[in-house]
């Protein structure tokens, strides 16, 4: 027996939509423009979204996660499957993934991305998706990308300065030697598998909690400069973990008056104890194992 | 559920959950109120059952009616069909003094009445029943395609919405013109 839902008062519509899951509301939004415009009444704005490359986009932040996967077979459109207690999937018509992103963000009023993940596919897509995030001032908790095609990674890195990335920026893309980039804002954690472009001036302005730089070009002198700043009372107050792998680290010049390798004298200790002016301690080590690496682990005052 | 039954059960000595103090306390006679819907059929409902409705509870909390006064002044709910009000009263009686379970099997199953029931429950501010009714409405489209949802929830197409909007605009224009003409006539 049909029921004229859109004749309900607005607050009642919201009460009904709050009982619906993202798949039901997505299908409802496809009924008409008016239907689509009411979906947000179901408190959908608190949901989050994430993607896994081109494979799927999922609405998350609720349990289970609702994955939207594309299919070319019309027979499967809107077909749903429960994958596990924490994952459901619905198949939808194939189209531009960037358009699906924009549709879900706008229909549900979502303003937070849990994870944005790009790897090895047409760079146009993720540039378009990134621009959609910037235009809507969406918060991105984690951005991960690796081995994207062509010049896409370089375009994407330039866009990261405009994106509101809050927790983690993880980049496994092998940037070419000529690549240059100036970071103007830092999330809590950064991890770059090729970081030769990240200069000491940028690192000195870094506000991260965790820094992991591989294939860096930072020298003993530059690392010494960083650590001397860290030792001051207000130097890098957020930093808890630093790992820098660099071919330029050598056993010629000192880092904090110590010539590498820098190791603890006692077995079982991870490094040499160094202290900040504010009394916080860190364990510093520099090793030449497979490749020269500096590590600094700082004690977390909240755990003391 | 009658007042006699209710009074008997609350005073029964065999009740295992009854605390000794309350068993010893003097029995307070339960008060009753009367409501009617569009069909004017009057329903006698205990104040305990009516507590589910925030609207009615607010109305009766300071009245202090005697049985005669209550009988002489039934609350009229002219916007609610008699059979819908009967369903609501039955539900309130069944859940008197009890929290509603998440899956309430006592709800009337007639889907054709669901729309009116939701509106009535919303008007009477019966929060738990409203949540359950909204769940029932939501369940109607669970797993359905857009085309099926359009039918079940009677969603007009964009073209139908546009036509209705045009019609409404036309009507509003005509009414405005009529009012202007009437005002001009009055001025003369």
TrEMBL record, chain A:
InterPro entries: F-box_dom, F-box_Sdz-33
F-box domain ranges (all copies): 2-50
Transmembrane segments: none
Entries under PANTHER family matching the protein: F-BOX DOMAIN-CONTAINING PROTEIN (PTHR21503:SF52), F-BOX-CONTAINING HYPOTHETICAL PROTEIN C.ELEGANS (PTHR21503)
Protein name: F-box domain-containing protein
Organism: Caenorhabditis nigoni
Chain's gene name: Cnig_chr_I.g3695
UniProtKB/TrEMBL annotation, chain B:
Any GO BP annotation: ubiquitin-dependent protein catabolic process
Keywords from the UniProt entry: Ubl conjugation pathway
Pathways involved: Protein modification; protein ubiquitination
Protein name, as recorded: Skp1-related protein
Region span, Disordered: 1-25, 160-188
Annotated ranges, domain SKP1 component POZ: 38-96
Gene3D superfamilies with a match to the protein in the record: Potassium Channel Kv1.1, Chain A
Lineage: Eukaryota, Metazoa, Ecdysozoa, Nematoda, Chromadorea
Top-rank taxon: Eukaryota
Residue ranges of every copy of the SKP1 component dimerisation domain listed in the record: 127-170
Amino acid composition bias (Low complexity), ranges on this chain: 8-25, 178-188
Family named by the database record: Belongs to the SKP1 family.
Biased composition (Basic and acidic residues): 165-177
Organism: Caenorhabditis nigoni
Role according to the record: Probable essential component of SCF (SKP1-CUL1-F-box protein) E3 ubiquitin-protein ligase complexes, which mediate the ubiquitination and subsequent proteasomal degradation of target proteins. Regulates cell proliferation during embryonic and larval development.
